[in-house]
Every structure is written in structure tokens, then in C-alpha cells.
Amino acid sequence: MGLDLLRMSGEKEMTYKEAIEKAGNSLTRFPLIPIRGVPLMSIIANNFDSIWAFNPDPSDLLIATYPKAGTTWTQEIIDLLINNGDAEACRRAPTPVRSPFLEIHSPPPIPSGLDLLKKMDPPRIIKTHLPFQLVPQGFWENKCKAIYVARNAKDNMVSYYHFDRMNKTQPEPGPWDGYVHKFMQGQLGWGSWYDHVKGYWVEREKRNILYLFYEDMKENPARVVRTIMQYLDLSVSDEVIDRIVELTSFKNMKDNPMANYSCVPPEVFDMSISPFMRKGEVGDWKNYFTPEQLKMFDEDYEKQMKDVHIPFRSLI
């Protein structure tokens, strides 16, 4: 595709950032519309038939997460593994161009995830936030590899809250207290966190899904990089693994313009409200929950997760 140069629907060649800037006032806070019971931004919901019809190549790799659970981090690790730790190769374009977001649709001339994928040769790294039941069946019929990253509910909620504050295309998050209830009831974009993490967990063995935990990535990133490497049938040296760990540290990724979403103008991602890469910590939820919210949330969590045991950490 070239270094972040797009030519979409007869438009002149432009960068991803220029395409977003040109869309200008067409970008707004899109309301949520349920698709099979899952709330999705209207611009995604209205194009869901084309998303559902997507047929990947068997060599394609799917990275699936609930929003703000370590998606970009995982995308960068995998791109570096495939490129043998070559940092310059991974600066060829911003993350959403190197690893398209399957279901995202935006006003022209911003390319949709499907537009970008059509212009790429397999194997492709494909990102999604879709819950398991909304992932196009071609991924499983073609036996594509898939990596799922789960983050503990409380930290995930805090991160998503701040993202919704700064992302001017998703519904207004409202105050924190109300957001807690929306999260518990699955009333956010991409639906219920509980259904999301459980859906991929129960299918992980049948579908050969590598199920990872954000907290494990923070605790021992080298071990997780090796796990991903083995799952992808790759082989890189220990030196390269150490380099990947360093290049994908929170600080380095936050400073990397090809990974920190600085390609998205402030009219869309207002990073004066909250940066795209905010803290990347485990346990930040303790700075937000009141004792009353904590009690309510923990009781609800036990009810929602009683039918499956997923070994999350840092919940208490």
C-alpha cells in the first residue's frame, strides 16, 4: 500500500490522517444500534451485512478484544514478531493501516476496515472488537488463527470510560457513576464485557483461539511474546524478543507516532481530555470505585460470571 498512502473511491492519494481531517464535520457521536442484541455504533450497525460477509484468507490472523483491553499493544507485538523485531518496518504506517479494524466504518474519504483489507495481500493482521457470535463465520470455517486478549473488568471499565470521554465518535459516557451501571448492563459499544470474555473463552479450544490476559502481559511480557511467537509458528532469537519487549513498553509505544493514534486529529480523538494511551496500569480502578460502587459491582460480577471460571487477577 505504500507508507500510509491511501487511494480510496477515486479520491486523490492521501494519508490516513488527511482522510480523517477531510471527513471533518461528517464525524459525530454515532448512536448505538443493536445488532443481534449487541449495541454497535450506528455507522457500524448500518454496514453490518458487509462485515458479516467478509471471507478472510486462511493465513489471516484475527486479534480480538473488548475495547481498551490491550489491542494496540498486541497488534504492535505481532507486527514486530512478523518483522523479526525491525522497528523501522513497523513504522511504515499507523496501526489502523498496518492492522485494519475489521468492522469500522467512517464517512468518506476515511477508508473502512474492509476497504483497507481489500487492498492488502494475505496474510493480514485483522483487529476486531466484535463479540464471538458476531465475528464473520469465515474466520472459523477457514481455520484462521485468532488471539484474544482479556483484561480484568474494573481496569477495563476505567480505561473504556476515559476513551469514551475523548473519542468524539462514540456516545457521551456521562458521569462515572452512571457509566458503571452502563458497563454492568452491557449498554456500551460492543456490548457486555461479561458476554465478550466468556464467548471467546468457551470457544477457545474448539476454535484454536490463543486466550491471553492483559495482567500476564504486564507481569512478564517476554513470556507472553514467546507464547504468541510459538502460536504463530514463528522463531526469533532471545535478543529479538528482548527488543520487542522494549519497543512495546508503554512509554515507547506512547512516544511512537505510528502506534499512539496521534494520526487521529483532535476533532475526533481529543487527547487534551485523555490520551489514547493513558496509563496502561493494573489496579488503576482503585482510584475510581467508591466503597458503595465496589460492593455493588463485586456482587453483580459474581452473578454474571458464576457460570464460567476465567482466571482473572487483580479484581480485589
Automatic annotation (TrEMBL):
EC number in record: 2.8.2.-
Keyword vocabulary terms for this entry: Catecholamine metabolism, Cytoplasm, Transferase
Family, as annotated: Belongs to the sulfotransferase 1 family.
Pfam families reported for this sequence: Sulfotransfer_1 (PF00685)
Protein origin, superkingdom: Eukaryota
Entry's localization field: Cytoplasm
Enzyme class: transferase
GO molecular function, one term: estrone sulfotransferase activity
Domain Sulfotransferase: 58-308
Main location: cytoplasm
Residue runs in coiled coils: none
BP GO annotations: catecholamine metabolic process; xenobiotic metabolic process
Protein name: Sulfotransferase
GO cellular component: cytoplasm
